[in-house]
Amino acid sequence: MESGLYKISHWIMRLAHLNLLWILFTFIGLVAAGIFPSTTAMFTIVRDWVRGEHDKPIFSTFWATYKKEFSRSNLLGSIVLIIGIILYVDYFYFLNMQGAIGTAMSILFITTAVLYLMLVSFLFPVLAHYDFKTIDYIKYSFIVGASYPLHTFYIVLSVGVVLYATVVFPVILVFFSGSFLSLLIMRFAYTAFEKIDKKITAN
User: Which has the closest alpha carbon to 123: 166, 172, 74?
Assistant: First the structure.
């Protein structure tokens, strides 16, 4: 019983520690330049946890990854953000279109939005797990998301549930929202990575 309570409290402290680092370093980068490298560093740590590597120091690992991935994370994050903004603007544009053209453009928008979700769902897990050339992270994230749509669905569902919980219980935002969500996402993503690695090994 005590061992179980210790493990639970230990995980709570870990997640809270990581979440506070994520928020702190996001603001250190003045938010716009800090959110992407901070998120990459957070995913790197939870990736180690998912792999069973629990002994690595959280702060030093976070700081080292934040510095190493600062430029690349901001570049990739900015590209994905710009695509998202374009889709957001297009949504309101297509919303006012009517007739066959409006229907066709709506179908095109929905298809593009789904593909975008596949990309976004796996971008940070891929950044944390693989070592590619910068642009290849976008390609591979999309490939994984498209190859494993069920995993993508679980990731999107997890985001929705955590966001809802954050609205209902705002204190979660400070202590657990980012770290707990990244842990959920990485668990689903890592399962997909393992399947891919097995296929590569088999061939």
Answer: 74
Would the CA dihedral through 160, 47, 132, 34 be positive or negative? positive
Residue 2 confidence (pLDDT) above 70: no
Q: Write down the residue that tokens 């030093």 correspond to.
A: 60
Distance, in Å, from the CA atom of 22 to the CA atom of 29, rounded to the nearest integer, reads 11
DSSP state of 53: -
All residues at 6 or more sequence positions from 81 whose CB lies less than 8 Å from its CB, including other chains? none
| Model pTM score | 0.94
Comparing CA positions, the residue from 74, 198, 197, 76 lying closest to residue 137 is: 76
Instruction: State the burial class of residue 67 (Cβ atoms within 10 Å of its Cβ: 0-12, 13-18, 19+).
Output: exposed
127-144, pLDDT tens digit by residue? 999 999 999 999 999 999
Give the model confidence (pLDDT) of 168-193 as tens digits: 999 888 899 999 999 999 999 999 99
Give the residue-averaged pLDDT of 37-64.
97
Residue 118 CB-density burial (10 A; 0-12 exposed, 13-18 middle, 19+ buried): buried
